[in-house]
């Protein structure tokens, strides 16, 4: 915590969101009162060219931050962006696949740093979830957390799904009704 406090407000928010969305809600609740407010000038450019609006949306959605050692790969990022832009006319999914460690996460997160893409195609924000290899209990926790995130503005407080099948059914309905993109 001391290291995070020496960083900027986005680091604290990212840490809070990571706790919240990775199954440590009790710890996140302890930190909730200390979440720094988002500044009112949320569209001003920062030093790296990314607006604080984009940083906030990505942070709230749990999108990984840019690594310290970052190598730009504009052709690959543009290819992902192009596929994401296609979701505007034809809702669906974009799947990025490849060997472990080849940069799928970094490339996809970088594509999402485009303010125009977020504004035009993901106005409600994004929800980042890393699944990887999980046992059934771990997968159920991830699915429960995703259901909770997607239902956050629902007037009905739903109990978490009790099994993977129930979670899949609830997510299917949420995706069709509330989040077709």
Q: Architecture of the largest domain, according to CATH?
A: 3-Layer(aba) Sandwich
Unreliable stretches (pLDDT < 50, length at least 5) are: 39-47
Q: For the record, what is the CATH homologous superfamily label of the largest domain?
A: P-loop containing nucleotide triphosphate hydrolases
CATH level-1 class of the largest domain: Alpha Beta
Helix content: 40-55%
Count of helix runs: 9
Quick summary:
Pfam families: NB-ARC. The chain contains 9 helices and no strands. Helix content is 50%, strand content 0%.
Fold and architecture overview:
With 181 residues, the protein is an all-alpha fold. The protein has three domains: 44 residues, Death Domain, Fas (Orthogonal Bundle), CATH 1.10.533; 79 residues, Rossmann fold (3-Layer(aba) Sandwich), CATH 3.40.50; 43 residues, no CATH class. It contains nine helices and no strands. Helix 2 runs parallel beside helix 4. The longest helix has 15 residues. It is globular. InterPro entries: NB-ARC, P-loop_NTPase.
């Amino acid at each position: 915590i001391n290291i995070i406090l020496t960083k900027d407000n986005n680091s604290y928010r990212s840490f809070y969101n990571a706790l919240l969305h990775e199954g440590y809600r009790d710890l996140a609740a302890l930190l909730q009162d200390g979440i720094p407010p988002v500044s009112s000038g949320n569209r001003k450019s920062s030093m790296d060219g990314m607006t604080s609006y984009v940083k906030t949306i990505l942070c709230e959605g749990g999108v990984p931050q840019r690594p310290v050692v970052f190598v730009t790969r504009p052709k690959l990022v543009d290819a992902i962006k192009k596929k994401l832009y296609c979701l505007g006319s034809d809702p669906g999914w974009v799947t990025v696949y490849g060997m472990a460690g080849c940069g799928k996460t970094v490339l996809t997160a970088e594509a999402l740093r485009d303010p125009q893409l977020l504004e035009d195609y993901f106005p409600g924000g994004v929800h980042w979830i890393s699944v990887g290899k999980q046992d059934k209990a771990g997968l159920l926790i991830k699915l429960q957390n995703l259901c909770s995130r997607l239902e956050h503005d629902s007037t009905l407080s739903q109990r978490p799904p009790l099994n993977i099948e129930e979670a899949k059914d609830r997510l299917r309905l949420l995706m069709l009704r509330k989040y077709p993109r």
